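DM between two lab members

TW: hey, do you still have the Cytochrome b5 heme-binding domain-containing protein entry open?
JB: yeah, one sec
JB: this one, 136 aa:
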Amino acid sequence: MATTAEFTYSQVGEHDTKESLWVVIDEKVYDVSKFVDEHPGGEEVMLDVAGQDGTEAFEDVGHSDEAREILAQYIVGNLKRDPSDPKPAVKARTSASSGDEGSSGGIPGIVYAVLVAGLAAGGYYYLQLQQQQASV
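TW: and the structure you got?
JB:
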């Protein structure tokens, strides 16, 4: 279905309730009001981005091809950005982290945090042993 309707960020922002829930994903505007109750992640995650650019949240979750096909059914138009509109967070993060594909948050971020904490604890323990041996 070809979409020719254009909506401003302000217009999208007027649809921020469960009954009228619009969201922007990759510069496309979707009316997902009828899908809120069916969303596997629950309505709260959708309400968090209601009337806003939800691209970053959508991409961070890693939606399946099937989820993207479902989303396509709800397209109502394209976003017509104004220079005063908030910039999409996913675009800024992508340019700031080019080549840093494995650290987009989620499980890899947790693994790195645990690894750093483990190294810090190991270093502390090693220094404590060295001090005890030096004082004996």
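TW: got it. The radius of gyration is 22 Å. Residues 90-105 have pLDDT under 50 and may be disordered.
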